[in-house]
Amino acid sequence: MTTVTTPEPLPRTAAAAEHDWWRDAVTYQLYIRSFADSDGDGLGDVEGIRSRLPYIAALGVDALWINPWYPSPQADAGYDVADYRAIHPAFGTLESAQKLIDEAHDAGLKVLLDIVPNHTSDEHPWFTAAVAAGPGSPERDRYVFRPGQGPGGDEPPNDWRSVFGGTAWQRVTDPDGRPGEWYLHLFDVKQPDLNWANAEVRAEFVDVLRFWFDRGADGFRIDVAHGLAKDPMLPDVGVGGGEASTVGHEEEKILGHVDLEDHPYWDRPEVHEIYADWRRVADSYDPPRLFVAEAWVASSEKLAAYLRPAHLHTAFDFEFVRAPWAAGKLRATATTSLAAHDAVGAPVMWVLSNHDIARHVTRYGKPQDARGTDPLHPYDDAAPTDIGLGTRRARAAILLVLALPGGVYLYQGEELGLPEVEDLPEDLLQDPTWERSGHRVRGRDGCRVPLPWARNGESLGFGPNPGWLPQPPEWAHLSVEAEEADRGSMLWLYRDALRLRRELPQLGGGPLTWADTPGRDDVLTFTRPGGFTCVVSTGRAPVALPAGRVVLSSVPLPADGTLPGDAAAWLLTT
Ligand code: BGC
User: Fold this and answer.
1) Where does 21-118+199-423 sit in CATH, by number?
2) Helices 490-503/387-403 angle, 10° precision
3) Residues belonging to the active site
């Protein structure tokens, strides 16, 4: 037996429980444009979410995270924000957003919003003012403008590449009509990077945090939390900054040589000061507000640096997203994550899918040894997907993550077992990656297809009309309506698991002990104090279950006391 040093949680008073609810919370990610469309414009909206709150509450989660809902040209599905203090007209109004926050609270759900501090939209008033004001102005200093290199300044200032493909620099035309400076955009050309060395930028975001905290938001997911600070000298990345974003290697692009020492823009130490300031703002509220960082960094230790006392509370742990479906790798990964988080007193936030990553039914339906090239988007691999196998593994995977210490983020639709839509027609693709890669990388639309709510209808109950992306017709069988009627569905597995997670005191925070399974490197077993065991098999051959009462399993179990391959079981062992 190997004991992981996860500390016993302190005895919790009611007030403490209210303050640290997030330590073992399950949060449901609402990708608003694809959740539920109340008015038939093809895009999901706030009213759609309001109408489906009972569904989310019945699932048994603790919190919601809503992807950006602010006014935006939607060049990157809302991650290009034109106004941080309002709601995009196609999504709703400030008034309807307030109703949603209040109703979610009434239903016992916390509400997390998404803050996008690395860049604004190029249609944000600050950016239009910066272009108009010209070089050297205080308006330009809010962004990262630089003269170009070479004769006439015709070459970009350095070798930095956009995460979505191509150079990270765009030249502007000066107010006098002549070609002018270049601005930095680590993402789309319509997403100019802010200059976080500028005091006005820092003050503005503190004010935006307060704006939403004052309206009852319980916290924020921080977009690209590892990207805000840039080396002011803007040195070349070197090692072929150009290759840092090699088209076709999505993880490489997101990470972009993040493991380099002193990377000029990823994971620089200066970002931590920003979050220490934000923590003070969050702690000035009662109850204190929460942060969860999206930080693609080189190691669990680097991630934990964001979570030191007086810094951020939590960060997504993407290690399971990068790991293949293999017990040994999953165990090693979980051990490393738990140890790194324990060292700073933070809980791990487990993730299997989100709006940037190929859905895990599909990832697990690919040959796991062929995932090396692009673990986040294996659909670029030629290998066909075995959806049945991927679904079976996804059922086991959720029992694994829900039994581990810490919190869990669920991505809408994973509770239905939705796969990646790998064959969307090219003329419908909207992810900027598609254009910026010269039509070589399809991008992330395949995990963003609108949810199927009903067996019939124009968009399977998503809305009265077709949604912004078409659903495969076979999703009728994966609709909420169909799965509610099937006690063996993925939806019911999620509901059962989440109910048990609430009921069983052994689950959530607390220590974990790995049990060795001699001769079986395809089986992972751990116990939680109080007589709980989780067994996960990533192999084919059945494995004997320990003595105890099975309270949940990902597949029906045979009578001989074994667990079949690619399956998981929860047992009470006292
Ligand atoms: C978000 C993406 C977005 C990017 C730029 C990411 O990390 O999750 O959806 O495209 O940040 O804002």
Assistant:
1) 3.20.20.80
2) 10
3) 223, 294
